[in-house]
Amino acid sequence: TQYVYRFGGGVSDGGKGDKNLLGGKGANLAEMASIGLPVPPGFTISTEMCQRFYDEGERFPESLKAEVANGIAHIEAITNKKFGVAADPLLVSVRSGARASMPGMMDTVLNLGLNDETVQGLARVSGDARFAWDSYRRFIQMYSDVVLELDHGAFEEALEIAKEDKGYSLDTEMGAEDWEALVKRYQAIVVEQWDKPFPQDVHEQLWGAIGAVFKSWQSERAKVYRRLNDIPGEWGTAVNVQAMVFGNMGDTSATGVAFTRDPSKGDRAYYGEFLINAQGEDVVAGIRTPQYLTREAREAAGAKPASMEEALPTVYGELAKVFDLLETHYRDMQDIEFTVQQGKLWMLQTRSGKRTAKAALKIAVDMANEGLITREEAIARVDPAALDQLLHPTLDPKAPRDVIAKGLPASPGAASGLVVFDAETAEKRAEMGDAVILVRVETSPEDIHGMHAARGILTARGGMTSHAAVVARGMGRPCVSGVGTLAIDAKAKVFRVAGREVREGDVITIDGATGEVMLGAVPTVQPELAGDFGILMGWADEVRRLKVRANAETPLDCKTARIFGAEGVGLCRTEHMFFDSNRITAVRQMILAEDEKGRRVALDKLLPEQRADFSEIFEIMAGLPVTIRLLDPPLHEFLPHEEEEFAEVASATGIGVEALKRRAAELHEFNPMLGHRGCRLGVTYPEIYEMQARAIFEAACDVAAKSGNAPIPEVMVPLVATRRELELMKAVIDKAAKAVFAEKGVTLDYLVGTMIELPRAALKAGEIAEVGEFFSFGTNDLTQTTLGVSRDDAGRFLTTYVDKGIYPKDPFVSLDVEGVGELIELAAERGRKTRGDIKLGICGEHGGDPASIAFCEGIGLDYVSASPYRVPIARLAAAQAAL
Ligand code: ADP
Ligand code: MG
Ligand code: MG
């Protein structure tokens, strides 16, 4: 097998189609080189080597040596420089790069090839000793951190001391001798910490760096990132070795990052940041505040330092041409890294840019309208899950705001929460159910778990492309970055700004769309659903086949669901209505009653309440199907616990407290989820289902009479395992319907069906369909019962299961297509065989999960049902599945 692929100097062994093999970075470097863009020459060691490296105990096969030597020779031939030779030394970067971009999660080493001799050569050839020693100290620092894994604090401290000694405040004041002296100090630190001198052999350096980059695939932060982003561990990273170009060679040199469109709002404008006389890492690390790319952006921000367009107009012009070329070539918004070495432009990376949901929508709609992509492609471009960001409230523009600071609008959306100063606390408080805002000087990859746990992120340093900004946008968390006026004392857990003091636990609000930071919680308003969102959803609705319904049981949920485009209710859980504080006593009275007569007394109290519930829902869902599930949870869950709860029931029933307690003890269950619940309640106490059915039909008749637009009730019997259970329950429901219709003098259409949530029901679906007119796959319980895993207790081991690849994803979040999916497919098939027009749908969490929705499309279900806020996600996912 070939493991090394070259690029540059008219050669490209790979291209943009080779992402799996070469990683995104390597594939795109090869592609850019092949379309004639200026790319420093280099080579990529493939992801296959990463797999082999781990398979063989973190060692390289002997054969790789020659391949890498050939790769180096390729770079030497094009650059006319020699690796490790002082006269004119070749320096390289060793860069990670996986299939999917994992910004900042893995390691990169720059300026490799410098040692005590080549640094002299570099100084001579460049005529710039300061630059040479600056590059050397950067290299030692990075190599010590990434490859030798030494404590980087010691290096930062040494630099601070060196500057203090000289009375400098900026790195730029350091001269050649200062950097040289610092290099000596750095080398001493290496000996102190590592017991060996800093490696002088450039080949040792190279292999050290290659190994370290492969190893960074398994670093803790990379693993966390993969878990959060569903990136499989087997993919591995590639390693790119590439000739260095230098943005730190004076005032005609620079380095920057750019997007071909605004990644935050989606506007068609070049967008980016750059720094004169700096190396790549400086822009993202937030060490110096970067400058704007275009004059327009600089003026809009009211900033002083010249934009690239103004400071380096010729190269800027070239860069703008490259942007257009790349966008047309890739037919997508690109995220680009570039460096200017003494007036010459070099491209170092391009990839499809991460963007906010808002920008994703706008860019997709715009590009389709520009004719760059088709409408189908536009639909496919938007990640349904990301829509979540848009569907949540933003700050009420009319609400008063106590603005205490302003920073950069780094990631849109608004969030209020308690201030915390570190990732661990963020995670802990979030687990306790608190909304938190993570406040940091700047974030680093170690903070991602805390960023994920937080509702929003606020930083004192860093630009629009800083780590905090990029990661927050990717996660859909609002972020305000670079609030220079924030004085953060993380140890004392306090920040001061504008004469105010904010401590850990105080509430603040951030607005990622304006950059404002406010004291206290600011009220919010509903999102804007017209514009690009409406247009793209319209296109999606044209291509989708699956209907989308909502799981909703309150009038508010039903209204929200309709606004989001729900085409009916797929699951109305009636027990939520039972828990209502006004009714719970009557519910308890019913449960604790000694006999049917006692139960009927309590049920009579509940009937008008239930009828009112259903009337409201039917009015909102007029003309649409509404699936109502009859009482499902174990009676156990409704039992009184507190003394006063027993007393209330006692006074309502006239039964003594002691007798009630005895009855409650009788009802106690060891395994309530497999106990007296679902249709077992209806089988043992038919009067409960009878009351519910009556309430449904009375409400339906009332609404039909009032509005002339009858709802279509679908009465659903839960937890059926056998045909006979459903037959008994259907008789109860039909009898209630007949009675109500007779009383009201009308007849309405309705269906009686069942949830398929037990493996036996799935297997016997053919028989059950003789009675049931529809099936709704209750995949929460069907997953529990098929896997034999309790959803409420799975947290303890499921993450380990996912880490070890036993399940690809949490099966309660994304359907276990192989196992549970097979049961669903089989049940659908057997059900259809009996009853050709049987209605099939899915409710449960999976109804809002794009991967699960694709499965539902594949087996031809009629609809999916999701929680109201996930309805638009389901509509888009259903469209993508149909493409
Ligand atoms: P990441 O994936 O974290 O962005 P990169 O491999 O892209 O890591 O490199 C980090 C920084 O170093 C980037 O700003 C990149 O542009 C810069 N860089 C990488 N290789 C070179 C090179 N050969 N010459 C100059 N700068 C480089
Ligand atoms: Mg990069
Ligand atoms: Mg269930």
Automatic annotation (TrEMBL):
Annotated GO MF terms:
ATP binding; kinase activity; metal ion binding; pyruvate, phosphate dikinase activity
Q: What is its EC number?
A: 2.7.9.1
Instruction: List each copy of the Pyruvate phosphate dikinase AMP/ATP-binding domain by range.
Output: 20-301, 318-369
Annotated positions binding substrate: 573, 629, 757, 778-781
Residue stretches making up the PEP-utilising enzyme mobile domain: 435-515
Describe the task this protein carries out.
Catalyzes the reversible phosphorylation of pyruvate and phosphate.
- What is stated as this protein's family in its record? Belongs to the PEP-utilizing enzyme family.
Q: What is this protein called?
A: Pyruvate, phosphate dikinase
